[in-house]
Amino acid sequence: MIFSKILINWYSINKRDMPWRLTKDPYCIWLSEIILQQTQIKQGLPYYNAFLNAFPSVFKLAEAEESEVLKLWQGLGYYSRARNLHTTAKYIANDLKGAFPNTYKDLLKLKGVGDYTASAIASICFNETTAVVDGNVYRVLSRYFGITTPINTSNGNKEFKALAQELIDVNRPDEFNQAIMEFGAIQCKPQNPNCNICPLQNGCIAFNRSVINELPVKNKTLKIKKRYFNFLVIISNEKKTIIEKREHKGIWQNLYQFPLIETKKNTSIKAFEALLREHNLLKDRSFEFVLYNDEPIVHKLSHQHLYTNFWVVTIEELPVEGIPVEQVHDYAVPILIGKFIERFNFNRML
């Protein structure tokens, strides 16, 4: 079809140089796709290089401790991706003897691998004719064909997948998939797309009807939850602090944090002192405390906004076993806490 030929030709001229485009190794492709889920290339590229340097094979990744993987992932967010990455690496290394599944159907069975990732690996590594559909693909197809079906609905998922499957070049599925994604990323951009030099301009319904900015359509159903986090940065005279592992499921599972008090709203210093006096770590102990940040630090996640305060508590002796403050950098922590650690600079206390 002319559509696919135009895209592939455009891709051959305009594609960006990326390390994962120089290989058909399913380990490298899988790693890149997991890292780039909900992550821009400029942010994900250093992580991709770091992971390959630390774990050059699926066996090396499988041998690593989860804490090592999470530490290297720190800053990317959506940490379930890192945990699934590690789990799948162990399954492939130990159960499959290092051999990646080579079909879309079998790739879907891997933990953390959905339709998009399975299609990408199957087409790029094994030349299977299975179309990818990501945010870039939704945008290109909805604009070119003038599709108004919301992309975040089951009907939308089915419609766009079927259309992409119909359009894919059966002889060059790997090139087509990479071409349409790249086209959406740097040509048919979300804002200010380069319509004047677009090779698909003549047939693009959105361009010809002047509705570029209205497509794709997405239902706004997500309700953002507000949460109020208060981290206790407890420091003893011996220059030790307390850091805890988040064991329960949810955000930041298996990452480390300072002791946390969650409140229903932002709390005044006077009101928070009463909470500290009753906290199991500080009850019946003498301590001093100060609020580190003047205003709550707002950390935005896809489904919730965290209004965060860091309370620096000084105490003569820790109530539980702690760690030397200089070791706080060794733990895998959420980016929110990582940024605080860098700003606070525990090393200056030594």
From TrEMBL:
Pfam families: HHH, HhH-GPD, NUDIX_4. Binds 1 [4Fe-4S] cluster. One of its GO terms (biological process) is base-excision repair. Its EC number is 3.2.2.31. Its cofactor is [4Fe-4S] cluster. CDD domains: ENDO3c, NUDIX_DNA_Glycosylase_C-MutY. This is Adenine DNA glycosylase. It comes from Snuella sedimenti. The lineage of its organism: Bacteria, Pseudomonadati, Bacteroidota, Flavobacteriia, Flavobacteriales.
